[in-house]
Amino acid sequence: MEKKKDPKEKAFAALINYLSYRDRSIAEAKQYLEKKEHARAAIRQAIEKAMEYGYLDDEKFADVFVRGKVIERKTSPKKIQFELGKKEVSQAYIHKALQTHYGEDVEEEIVLSWIEKLDQKYRKEP
């Protein structure tokens, strides 16, 4: 006789699978589980359990997200702030991550790389 999986366990398993691909914000995780039509109580418990285990943490998510964007050297602080805002990350966490990883030197490097790309694109050879 096959034992049916508890809805809370199913929601948590689905969440762990979703988180295995990359870090997510708490809001993204909740939206994913809602889209998969898990019960509200199961969603709440799955998210709480993932937070207890350290799998879901908006502060860590913001830090990793900003660090990744800084490494790519393609994204302005305003765009990063907008993208994290869409993921419903706290403005305090966004601000902290930007302060940690996005100094004037980084912004200057990004602007210089944009200028260099535009210069190469529009440079006319004699």
Helix/strand layout:
Blueprint (H helix, E strand, L loop, with lengths): L6 H13 L6 H10 L4 H13 L5 H15 L4 H10 L4 H11 L2 H19 L4
Helix pairs in contact: 1-3, 2-3, 4-6, 5-6
Structural description of this entry:
The protein is mostly helical and 126 residues long. The chain has 2 domains: 1-56, Winged helix-like DNA-binding domain superfamily/Winged helix DNA-binding domain (Arc Repressor Mutant, subunit A); 57-126, no CATH class. 72% of the residues lie in helices and 0% in strands. It is built from 7 helices and no strands. Helix 1 (7-19) crosses helix 3, helix 2 runs antiparallel to helix 3 (40-52) and helix 5 (77-86) packs antiparallel against helix 6 (91-101). The chain is elongated. The model has no long low-confidence stretch (mean pLDDT 89).
How far is the first residue's CA from the last residue's CA?
80 Å
Spans where pLDDT lies below 50 across 5 or more residues = none
> What's the shape?
elongated
- In N-to-C order, the SSE pattern is HHHHHHH
Number of helices: 7
Bin the strand percentage.
under 5%
Number of domains: 2
Main sheet characteristics: none
Mean residue pLDDT = 89
Radius of gyration: 20 Å
Number of strands: 0
* Helix-and-strand structural type: mainly alpha
Measured as a percent range, the helix fraction is over 70%
